Amino acid sequence: MTGTRRSDRRPADGSPVARVCVDVPLAHLDRPFDYLVPAELDADAVPGVRVKVRFAGQLVDGWLLERADDSGHTGRLAYLEKVVSPEPVLAPEVARLARVVADRYAGNLADVLRLAVPPRHARVEKDVRARTAAPDENPVAPEEGPAVPEENPAALGEGPAAPAGPDAWRDYPAGPALLRALADGRAARAVWSALPGEDWPARYAEAVAATVAGGRGAVVVVADNRDLDRLDAALHAALGPGRHVCLSAALGPARRYRAFLAARRGDVAVVVGTRAAMFAPVARLGLVAIWDDGDDLHAEPRAPYPHAREVLLTRAQLGDAAAVVGGYTRTAEAQLLVETGWAREVVADRATLRARMPAIAPTGDDPQLARDPGAATARLPSLAWTTARDSLRADLPVLVQVPRRGYLPSVACAECRTPARCPHCAGPLALPSAEGIPACRWCGRVAAAYACPECGGRRLRASVTGARRTAEELGRAFPGVPVRTSGREEVLATVPGGAGLVIATPGAEPVADGGFGAVLLLDSWALLTRADLRAGEEALRRWLAAAALARPAAAGGRVVVVADGALAPVQALLRWDAGWFAARELAERRELGFPPAVRMASVTGLPAAVADLLAEARLPAEAELLGPVPADGERERMLVRVPRARAGALAGALHSAAGVRTARKAAEPVRLQVDPLALF
């Protein structure tokens, strides 16, 4: 193992040196260690392969980062025990990116590499290597499809991909210039605000085609597999078969590893996928892109908790690649890219926007309340009901967005309105159906004999109405009309033409042939009143995503939001001006000192452990400590805030302090998160 002093001396036996990242999740061991390469492993022990090494008396996994002729360690070096596979799965540029990401998020390199390189699948490796040795045989695993994608002339240098057509991105004044920059291999950076009804997979496919035509590769990340399926189909149409691969954890170990190897070996120039694709090894990377960067699915739930947007932007910076951050809405982070000049906004002019927009109306403004006084409290005000009725009469489908899934996900005492809580764990009680028995959403225990602790009442009333209960109510309101639901249990991809009601939770809205005639946005209070810094931003994101599925106003498209029209997110929806709202949010966060205007780290654990880590940390002089606030159970959370220019110093100080604690084997763990999505 390496020491702290460097002597640059050649090992006594003349064996070459391998620098290895050992897969040990301890902060004080977050550095490469030197090992000797025995003669029998010399040919296979190349940078990027998986290895086995002896570490602290145990055989552990590792990645061989680089070879060297000498070592900085003054003591005796151990030998590599084994090369797990001669396949160099870790590309040099991905290793460099992983180190930068680990430093950015106060994490360990081994943790990031575990995210970047999928688990090995020996049979897939064997098939791929056999195909390389004997390409005519091309062994196939029947349940997985082809062993590798079909031949890709663009990736193999046998011909460029067809560039995007002249009509591509024509609705955006800066769009054609963006495509020209991609085709020329320039590092264009764009924040794209998509028009209502935009076929965003086709636009991204055109951008990718322009990049490939310029001889470079691309990585595109989306939030979920439904978006991935749409993008996959668009790329198949734009590039042809076998010229890209999809990377997603949902593919299963074998198919995911096969796609990963195709990218690593250079068989394809384009990789698309969910956040599993943000580290995809693409040679000569020319474009990184992300769709709907505000979706919380882009945030990795495993340490060190990187966000796909930040990883991709870091790749663009390190590799001098172009970057596109797109969506119907715009996050404060994307707005900061525009305001600092790092990226240019790609937006349509107002005339084009007005031609593509549906007609949008709120139910809580003064004129509507004058016509319908009950609209302030009704769940389905008359404006929403008549809009849905008129659309159904015109034989157009209607989309109803409901923030919560289930039947009645939250109930309260019918007498005193006290929220009903589980007597065992204090979790919220929910009703699964009209005749169902209340049960806890946390521990699952049934509360058949529930009695209100305040008044003793036994009757329950709805506090929050879920998608299934909404479908039941609307089925009675519109008899004879088909009612479908789309949510976590069953996601509809598309809706056929013809009248019908679709009740969907956010993110599960299907695409209708020709667009929806009406979109109803119910229970807006459930989104706007959340105790979350991003509540308004998230509400607007979900509303715009649903409203974008409506037809233009000229074709009968209508959107009704059950909310007060004076609220800032509602105003942004009515004008379809996500840029204005993002600039407003960023200005407010800058004034209050919240991300992304500043960098903030969350330190969570038992009070003594949090205090111990902060006492060890040599925080920058500008650091401010906020808290503590309760986290969960007995744990608490402290927030550390610094200016953006001091972000590296903050992450380094916290990582070093974590290393001190792991070195002395502190019993209680502490969770470190830099710029977490949830601060409260």
TrEMBL record:
GO molecular function ontology, one term from the record: hydrolase activity
Cofactor annotation: Zn(2+)
Key word Transmembrane present: no
InterPro entries: P-loop_NTPase, PriA, PriA_3primeBD, PriA_3primeBD_sf
Domain (Primosomal protein N' 3' DNA-binding): residue spans on this chain: 19-118
Pfam family, one: PriA_3primeBD
Binding site for Zn(2+) 1: C413, C416, C452, C455
Residues where Zn(2+) 2 binds: C422, C425, C440, C443
Record has Metal-binding as a keyword: yes
Disordered, as annotated region: 126-169
Co-factor binding comment: Binds 2 zinc ions per subunit.
UniProtKB keywords: ATP-binding, DNA replication, DNA-binding, Hydrolase, Metal-binding, Nucleotide-binding, Primosome, Zinc
Biased composition (Low complexity): 137-166
Domain of life: Bacteria
Entry function: Initiates the restart of stalled replication forks, which reloads the replicative helicase on sites other than the origin of replication. Recognizes and binds to abandoned replication forks and remodels them to uncover a helicase loading site. Promotes assembly of the primosome at these replication forks.
Similarity-based family: Belongs to the helicase family. PriA subfamily.
Entries under NCBIfam families matching the protein: PRK14873.1-2
PANTHER family membership: PRIMOSOMAL PROTEIN N
Subunit structure: Component of the replication restart primosome.
Record's protein name: Probable replication restart protein PriA
Origin species: Micromonospora reichwaldensis
